[in-house]
Amino acid sequence: MNRRFDRERGSSTVATVGLVCALLVLGTTCAGLIGVITAQHRAAAAADVAALAAADAARGLTPGEPCAVAERLALANGAQLGGCGQPSGLGGTVDVRTFVDIPGPFAFLGPAQGLSRAGPLAS
């Protein structure tokens, strides 16, 4: 038998295992990034909706206490309310902060955060 071929026996197995491992790492990274981006968009959308509804309540257009309305809407959109407040000097304006947990392999980064301010137009 030819010694050259004996030395290369099994090399395609090693190359295949290396390629599979590289593809697994790439797939896990892509899945993690998709989870981070999705959580960030969900947190931002929940903050926007909650701030708009809270501003309506602060202006008396809808019933309820502004931050209670914001919390209810944040929860309905899959987020936790992290903060809610009405800045002084800006009547009818509400600031809202929301958090959404990041799923998947990048959960160690902590929750995604959304921040929004809504209120009447400044004159």
Describe, in plain words, how this protein is organized in 3D.
It is built from three helices and three strands; from the N terminus they run H-H-H-E-E-E. By secondary structure, the chain is of the alpha+beta class. It has one domain. The protein has a three-stranded antiparallel β-sheet with strand order 1-2-3. A hairpin with an 8-residue loop joins strand 1 and strand 2. The radius of gyration is 25 Å and the shape is rod-shaped. The model has no long low-confidence stretch (mean pLDDT 89).
Summarize the structure.
With 123 residues, the chain is α+β, with helices and mostly antiparallel strands. The chain contains three helices and three strands, in the order αααβββ. It has one domain (3-118).
SSE diagram, text form:
Layout: H1 3-7, H2 11-58, H3 66-76, E1 80-85, E2 94-100, E3 112-118
Antiparallel strand pairs: 1-2, 2-3
Helix pairs in contact: 2-3
List keywords for this structure.
about 120 residues; alpha+beta; 3-stranded antiparallel sheet; 3 helices; about 50% helix
Ends: how far apart? 91 Å
Oligomer: single chain
Strand content: 15-25%
Helix content: 40-55%
Judged by helices, strands and strand pairing, the structural class is alpha+beta
Number of helices, counting only DSSP H or I runs of 4 residues or more: 3
